[in-house]
Amino acid sequence: MAVVSDQFVVSNMQTVRRRSSPAFDQGFRWASYGSALIVLAVLAGIIGSMVYGGWPAFQEFGFGFITSSIWNVGQDQYGAWVAIAGTLTSAVIALVIGVPISIGIAIFLTQLCPPWLRRPVSTVIELLAAVPSIIYGMWGLFVFAPFFAKYVQIPLTTIVEGMPILGTVLYARVPSGVGMMTAGIILAIMIIPFIASITRDILDQIPTVLRESAYGIGCTTWEVMRYVLLPQAGVSIIGAVMLGLGRALGETMAVTFVIGNANRLSLSLFDPSSTIASRIANEFNEAAGMQMHALLALGCILFVVTFIVLALARLLIAGMKTH
Amino acid sequence: MDNAAYRKASTTAPAPWGRVRRSRYWADRALKIVSTLFTALGAFVLGWILLMLLVEGIGGLSPAVFTETTPGPGTEGGGIANAIVGSLILTVLGIVVATPIGVLAGTYLAEYGKDSTLATVIRFVNDILLAAPSILIGLFVYMLMVQPMGGYSGWAGGVALAIIAVPVIVRSTEDMLRLVPGSLREAGAALGAPMSTVIVKISWKAARAGMVTGVILATARIAGETAPLLFTALNNNFWFSPTLMGGVSNLPVTIYQFALAPYQNWRELAWAGALIITLSILGLSIVARLILKKDKVR
């Protein structure tokens, strides 16, 4: 059937000629060139709209916009520090929890897993990335937070109460399960699939000879990982971690559900806080005037930070491929 | 018994090596156990989330969910028919806008631009957009379309989703086209076919399964996006206007609003919606993998 239809097209010279006319060829080239430029235009548009929209806020508050922790809609005074600190803290918690787990998963998939199990386990881990952010938010708020409050926060609070530093950092005034720590844990789960699958690919790219010669002189799996594979893959794994960090910084819906959305600086990891993304999601639709400019300025700061982090991530991961 | 004795003997080696052997053994053991446990933890979390959705969502599923519109505050019953239809329209709109742009841009990178400076820059920018915070894309489209047009619209929502889908399609198209052997293209060119014909009839044809997979994965990605719709399509508790002007109801934002609401029936609808949306997205992701796997086997 396919053969017949191919012949038909070839014998019908008119069709062939029309399709491969120089005009079509040129048009196709320009269309793909134009589409590629759209990608550039989108990035430029995002930067441009953030800077344009946030400019009045930067002008009004100057450098103090970043360092001030006041966010008062009534008095029209805005400062970004609480949101910036919240964004950074939640992302750091996510990395501290998520990176060891991701690397462990990558080690399991590349070194320990029997071949028949590899594909299903990889798929399961990658499906974690397909679950929508809002579902993580619902799971975090309705299932994980009560569980976390009951089995971690309340026992921990009674233990650390009165201790010098731990008594502040791990003390939950209202053990509801909602707060910075829960947001960090949810973010960790969300970035694990990204870091794990890139680390797996990096470990797979290392020539088998290296690994096998290490096993050949009697190294254990730990020694092969620690002294052969990790030094080889180190820089790229840092790149994968940066990519995870970039995702954690900008994650919105899941964080909005579980972080508690309070504008206050607190030393306790169990207290509610907010991030740049959660504040924008919460306030932008009702914002007008200076509040809107301030939110766009927050978006501008978020964009600059994620841009730097993601650009570094890409350079570090790409460095591996050329070697 | 014998087995236990054997294992003991093999872990505690002869005297001169005893200490070293033991620490090496335990380091190795610890690594293996911890990595396996971490992997199990990942699978466990996915299972936990799916179980939660099934337990909470199935109770809320009823024919009314698919036939009635979202209920007002304090109203009994209701469904999410308008949200489901709205989500389908927005997702299709996004993917219809994104597919030609994404495929052509990916084609440019793989076939025309290759290692030129412009192509390198675009590849770099595309990778950044791939992981850029989706809420910023919502803000951008708000400034680009909602403000000038004077109101929220489904068109703005579709464009916001398209901006998220384009980088996914660009990346997968380029990756798949790069797998096509150069000799195939040369064979086409040797027959006198112009570049566009070589690309359309040879490269695209050879990479078809991978490119379709990319589009399906992009669909799965945008179907559950909430943040970019908050400021563009907003939401609507009624049937939206057929011109898509004004708020267009959609599942993610409906789930967001209903899950946090104080009304019991709203919460049940949110769970039903969450179940529907997650199963569709996971289904799409699995179908995409199967297409690619089948192509590889062939």
Automatic annotation (TrEMBL), chain A:
A Pfam family that the UniProt record links to this protein: BPD_transp_1
Q: Please give the PROSITE patterns that the UniProt record associates with this protein.
A: ABC_TM1 (PS50928)
What stretches pass through the bilayer?
Answer: 36-58, 78-109, 121-145, 178-198, 294-317
Domain called ABC transmembrane type-1: residue spans: 84-313
Q: Which GO terms describe its biological process?
A: phosphate ion transport
Which parts of the chain are coiled coil? none
A GO molecular function annotation here is: phosphate transmembrane transporter activity
Where it sits in the cell: the answer is: Cell inner membrane; Cell membrane
Q: Which family does it belong to?
A: Belongs to the binding-protein-dependent transport system permease family. CysTW subfamily.
Q: What does this protein do?
A: Part of the binding-protein-dependent transport system for phosphate; probably responsible for the translocation of the substrate across the membrane.
Q: What is this protein's record name?
A: Phosphate transport system permease protein
Q: Which organism is it from?
A: Microvirga flocculans
From TrEMBL, chain B:
Family note: Belongs to the binding-protein-dependent transport system permease family. CysTW subfamily.
The molecular function GO annotations come to: phosphate transmembrane transporter activity
Q: How does it sit in the membrane?
A: Multi-pass membrane protein
Q: Which residues cross the membrane?
A: 30-55, 80-109, 121-146, 152-170, 238-259, 271-292
Subcellular compartments: Cell inner membrane; Cell membrane
Instruction: Set out the biological process GO terms recorded for this chain's protein.
Output: phosphate ion transmembrane transport
Superkingdom, taxonomy of origin: Bacteria
The ABC transmembrane type-1 domain, residue ranges: 84-288
Tell me the organism. Microvirga flocculans
What coarse category fits the chief subcellular location reported for this protein?
Answer: membrane
Any Pfam family: BPD_transp_1
Q: Which UniProt keywords apply?
A: Cell membrane, Membrane, Phosphate transport, Transmembrane, Transmembrane helix, Transport
Query: According to its record, what are the GO cellular component terms?
Result: plasma membrane
Classification via InterPro entries: MetI-like, MetI-like_sf, Phosphate_PstA, Phosphate_transprt_permease
Name of the featured protein: Phosphate transport system permease protein PstA
Coiled-coil annotation reads none
Keyword Transport recorded? yes
